[in-house]
Every structure is written in structure tokens, then in C-alpha cells.
Amino acid sequence: MQNTTTELRERVREVLRQHPDSQRAFAGKVGLDATKLSKSLSGARRFTPAELTRIAEVGNVTVNWLINGSDEVETVAAAPQRTARAEVDLTGNGEAGRYQQILDAAWHLIAERGYHSVRIADVAKACGTSAATIHYYFPGRNDLLTETLRYSVRQAFDRQVAELHTVDDAHERLLRLIELQLPTPGLLRLEWSIWMQVWNESALRPELRVLHTDSYNRWHDTIARTIREGQQQGVFTGADPEELAMTLTALIDGLGIQILTDRPGRSVDGMRQVLRDFVDREIVRH
Questions:
Q1: What band does 83 get if pLDDT is binned at 50, 70 and 90?
Q2: Taking the alpha carbons of 53, 58, 62, 68 in that order, is the dihedral positive or negative?
Q3: Highest mean pLDDT: which of 92-96, 145-149, 155-159, 166-170?
Q4: What's the pLDDT band for 94 if we cut at 50, 70, 90?
Q5: Residue 3 class from Cβ within 10 Å (0-12 exposed, 13-18 middle, 19+ buried)?
Q6: CA 229 to chain centre
């Protein structure tokens, strides 16, 4: 857990003031007991990284803003490109809340069923609304995949900032970055499903490649900057950080794909060990 500063608590209060629901209802959306939320706001307990990530998601802000007061602050992870969302006016909390509800439903459906198996009607049914409402936020079905990728990138960034912003040791941070990228059952495995579908569609649809490249560069840059910081701390070798990042991310991709496709003999535990061995052998200074 990270220290809960006065500034962070005040920014969470600002999110609550802007949210249309009561504090108790907001806590329920975050998955946090209302009493625990009150204690965290008073400084009697600390927000966990997972709670900060959910507060940012429900409040339509970033963890970087909650912790540092700005979306633009350089932090432990490279920030995603601030690309425009679907061309819809999201002013007002009701609009933003509805957009987020639809995006979350689309994200889960695509991750679980596959992009080509999800219809606009499926998303509408999951949200209890009409297909016309979905089209208002997502003019075409292709927009669903584009926005779910942006959503995945934002989730990963928020999770990394929440988990790692107090980890000063670059070696520990690199190992925890790897841990946050393992396709464990649940949220991370669903994120991997989205990425695999985006890789496939990007190979077939050139218009997706710019967004894919921008999103992937964020992950590569996060690894590279962590390696550079470790070199400055004297805990990593002096090898080229860009080449090390390229090799490490390629290892993560290849192993992750093998696990998602259930290749015999591949497991999350095995993937973790291979990646830790690579870091120890090729990156850590002995």
C-alpha cells in the first residue's frame, strides 16, 4: 500500500463531489465498503492500489491525477497517448457514466467471446439499453475494438502507477511490472485476450496500426525507462536499454500467447520464472 497524502484524499473528495451518486453508492461501484472509504478520506486507513485504480475508473480520471495532481506528470510508467475517444460529447457526469458503462460491457464481451462474435445488440442487452444508444457512443462496430484497446491501455497505466509509484528500487519495480503483465485468471487474462485480437486485426486493417503502435510503445517505454533508472542506481548492467526492453517485451508476448492458447507445458508460474531468470541473467549487475 502507498502513503495516503492530504492532497490525494482531497482529489478523491473532488471526484466524489463531481459524481452524481451518493458517497455510499460511489463506494459500492468501486467495490469498497462505505466505512472504509470514509476512513480512507479521513486518513485513518490507506487506499490500496486496487482501490485507487477503481476510483479513477468510476470517477473518469486517471490514477496519475489522483496521486500527482496532473495527467501529464512523468511517473513510473509511460503515459498513454491522449487520443480522442469516440466523437461524442461526454460533458456531464451522466454522459461520461453511460459511456463508461457501455465501454466496460463491450470490453468484457469482446475479451470473453471474441470481437467478431460480439454484436451491437449484445452490448445493448448487457447494458439494458437500445442499439441506438450504443451507436450514439460508438458509431460503428470497429469503434468498439478501437476503444476497448484504449481502455486496456488506460487500465494498465493506472494499475502500474497505483502499484509502483512508491517503489524506488528499479530492480523490484521491474519484477513487479512483469508480475502485472502475467496472464493470470481474471482481469489480466481478459486484457491479454483484447491484445491478441488487436494484434490480429492490426495485421489485417492498416488503420488500426497507428493506435496499436502508440499503445505498444507505451509499454516498451515503461520497461526501457525502468532499466535506465536501474542503470543510474547501479543495479543493472550498462547494456542498451532499448534492446533489453525489446527482448524482454518479446519474451513476455511469446510466452503469454502460448499460455492463452493452452500450449502443453506452459503456465503462468513457468512464464514468471523464465522472465525472472532473464532479468537476473541479462539485466541485473552482479
A1: very low
A2: negative
A3: 166-170
A4: low
A5: exposed
A6: 22
Query: What's the distance, CA 62 to chain centroid?
Result: 10
pTM, two decimals, is: 0.77
pLDDT confidence of residue 86: 43
H/E segment holding residue 57: helix 49-59
Q: What percent of the chain shows pLDDT beyond 90?
A: 48
Q: Interior CA angle at 86 toward 95 and 150, to 5°?
A: 105
Place of cell 447494458: 127
Is 268:180 a contact under the CB 8 Å cutoff?
Answer: no
CB 158 within 8 A of CB 53: yes
Amino acid at 19: H
What SS3 state is found at 284? strand
Give the separation between CA 130 and CA 65, rounded to whole angstroms: 34
Do 286 and 235 form a contact (C-beta atoms < 8 A)?
no
Tell me which H or E stretch contains 219: helix 209-233
What cell does 46 get?
490507506
In this prediction, residue 1 carries a pLDDT of 38
Within a 10 A sphere around the Cβ of 251, how many other Cβ atoms? 16
Going by C-alpha positions, the residue among 61, 142, 132 that lies closest to residue 106 is: 142
